[in-house]
Structures are given as C-alpha cells and as structure tokens.
Amino acid sequence: MNIGAIIAEFNPLTEGHKYLIEKAKQQCDSLIVLMSGNYVQRGTPAIFDKHSRAQDALNQGSDLLLELPLKYSTSSAENFAYGSVKILSLLNCIDKIYFGSECGDISLLTKASEYIHDIEADSEFNNLVKQELKNGYSYPNAWSNALEAIDCNLDDTNPRLLTEILKGKNNLLGIKSLTSMKTLSSAFTAETIKRIDKNSATTVRYNIHEATLGINKYDVPNSEYASKSPLFEDDFSLPLYMTLVSKSEEELSEYVDVSSDLAYGIKSKLKSFSGYNDFSFSLKNKSLSFARVQRALLHIMLDIKENNSIVSKNSLSELKESEVITDYTKVLGFNEKGREILSLIKKNSMNLAIVTKPSDFSVFSNDDVLSDYKTELQSDALYYQVLRNKYKDKLKDELTISPIILDK
Predict the structure, then answer these.
(1) pLDDT tens digits, one per residue of 14-29
(2) What's 188-236 look like in SS3?
C-alpha cells in the first residue's frame, strides 16, 4: 500500500485544500492528514473545532485524520514543521508527504532547503542575524535581512531567486518540512503541488467573521460554513485577561515565546486591555511580529511553558533508541482504508502513543508526554467552554468524543 500524508491546519478547509487532497490522492493509495487541533500556528483558536474540520477532511477523500500535538501546532514555523515531520516519521508507514506551494517545483524547494540548512550553520550568517536583532528587527525580518546581505545565489540567471521563493508562505513552510526531513533522516520523500488561485484560508476566515457581524455573506461556495459555529480571538478575551492578571512579570517569562521585554510590556499595558486582538496589536513592534505576540499570549493562556522536546531536535535514530514513548498523536477519524492504515501504524510505529480513546492514559509510558497531553485536554476544555458560552450549545467533553468513522 502506497501511503501519502499531508500536514495541515484546514482552518478552515478551502477549495485550495480540496484541490491538494484530490491531487495527492491521485498519486497514492491512501492518504493520512496530520492536522492541528483546536489551536493553530498563527497563535489563535481554530475558527471551527477540530472534529468538525476532521469531518470536512474525511468528506473530501482523506482516509485517516490524526491530530498534531498542541505544543507543535501553536509553535513557530520551524517547530511546527519539525513536530509534524517527527510524528509522521514515527508512524513508520509513510511513503511520501505532499504540500502545496506557490513555487510548485520540488527540486527547487529541495535545493533551497539544503542551502538554508547549510547557511544556518555558518557563523558569518548568524552574526548578521544577531546584528539585525540588535538593530531592533523581529527574528523573521532579521533573518531575511541577513540573507539579503550575503551571496545567496541559487541560480546564475536569477540571483534573487531564493529571496523570491521565501516570500511565499507555503514555500517557506514546505522548505521547513524538507529541512526537518533532513534533520530527522526521515524515510519518506516529498512532493509539492502548485497552489491554485482560490480564496486563501485567511480570506475565508475574514469573510466568515464579517458575515457574523452582518456585513456581508459568506464568500465561499454554497455557503458551506453557514451551519457551523465559528470562534475568533476576541471570544477568548476574558480567559486571556484573567490569566494575564493572575501572573507576575517573572511568571510570564516562563512561557514559550515570552521574552522578559514582552512580559514587561504585557504587565505595563494590561490596564488598557480591551480585547484579545487589540491587545495583541498594542504589543506588536519592530522587533516583535504580530504572530509572535499572538503565539506568546496563547501560550500563556493555555499554560504552555518551555519544552525541551521541541528545542532539542533529535534525529530519528536517536528517537528510536529511546526506551519510552517520545510523543503522541490522537486519532480524529477514519474510513475503511484509514482503519487498515491504523492497524498498520499500531503494528509498526516507533515510540509513539496512538490515542484512540481520549480517556485511556495507559498508552503513555512517559510522564512528560502525558503532561503535554493533559495540557492539551485542558486547552480543549477551554475551547469548548467558550463555544458553549457563545452559542449555548451542549458542553463538549474531549474525553468522551470518539473518532469519526466514515462508512462508505
């Protein structure tokens, strides 16, 4: 069986995502989707809950939906990619991963990832990055400025080709995935599918938000999201504020992405707090990107502190040598093909807890990994409480939600 995989957020699932699934399915027998849960990489709650998005992905032809752990799904692009590739590698059954890109050329993206992998080990480049950080630039801008300052020629006919490639957000995430594959010595290969010119997830989220305010109608085919219950950053304003008020400046500095300067800024501006989104904008500056601020605030609210398993990027051989579970993934849903893949994963996976029953903690033999899982359950409980308060729905309990089984 030729098994492919996609790393995704589907926040929400768009026409472009449907195209990616369709093209990937044409090249493999079965397709796994490793998807973010109720919180996503840009530092916000997902617009729709993970089970709703998993159902959408299964309906579009995905065979098995697995959840990317919270500590990776809310991290930087680099850690998001590493965590995703790590989980897929530990499944020990993937033949190829597929990702969308603006470039659409896997050989070019591979060349770019190898170049970046080498240059990030170069002392001259790292010194330039440090200097740009001292000049007040955020890390992404400091990194880009340093790249501009050195000879980064991928193509003699187009000296600025690498810079142009890196302007594509999907190109960059694909490159990060390819770099992580090299770091981990993953057994699978990669293929990219050129993105089609359709509304991005950002555009769809904006249109849905505007529609909830009565400003316009859903700008999506067949108004397919009209029956769903969207959540936005500002729906979490109260729990965020209450958490920030309860923490000292020193305590805030213990959380992922929270520097001492940001901790000071949070406490000094807290009296003017008017909402999640506005407060994030108030903390943004030349050295702190909006996304970095939002991730930091999300980590504080969800109690996600520094974690060595993210920082220490072990190779696959090192992970295999571990005598305990090194990570986990939760099964969100599957069809008949997905059931077969799941049986294969349970047989072949390496040091990975496969959670099919959310309340079964016996699959964890590592207290640190179990702690990560419990933090995720706590975060899910917050998401469902906010969802209930907004829409007066029945309160969901993640511990009692079984994987979706699609019979067809």
Answers:
(1) 999 999 999 999 999 9
(2) CEEEEEECCCCCCHHHHHHHHHHHHCCCCCCCCHHHCCCCCCCCCHHHH
